[in-house]
Amino acid sequence: MDSYKFQKACKEWLIKYYKDHYNKVIGIEDVFVVWSCKTLQNNKILISTTIDDGVYVEVTYNGDKKESYFDIYTKVRNVLVENQKLFKD
After folding, report:
1. For residue 12, pLDDT beyond 70
2. For residue 17, is it left (φ>0), alpha (ψ between -120 and 50) or beta?
3. What 8-state DSSP symbol labels residue 52?
4. Rounded distance, CA 50 to CA 32, Å?
5. What is each CA distance from 46 to 22, 30, 80, 84, in whole angstroms?
6. How far apart are CA 32 and CA 72, in angstroms?
7. How much is the pLDDT for 88?
8. According to the model, what pLDDT value does residue 26 have?
9. Do 19 and 13 contact (CB within 8 A), yes or no?
10. What are the pLDDT digits (tens) for 15-45?
11. C-beta separation of 10 from 47 below 8 A
12. Does an H or E element contain 42, and which?
């Protein structure tokens, strides 16, 4: 599947998911791509929405099996770690 078709299908799936599970109507302009990659017959994408709910979705398309897997995550916390404490020279 080419990258454009994959990204569009994933965005449309997420729009339907929000309607079915959260009773929220969002448009395609409310869904954005964080990262996307195509390697050989496989695709992967990270997408989210403009809704402030901390949800993001990782979609993997297995081209050999013609299957897609949707992993839905919610951000739990954002913790600041100062670089000088994390990376020691």
Report:
1. yes
2. alpha
3. S
4. 8
5. 20, 14, 23, 29
6. 15
7. 67
8. 97
9. no
10. 999 999 999 999 999 999 999 999 999 999 9
11. yes
12. strand 42-49
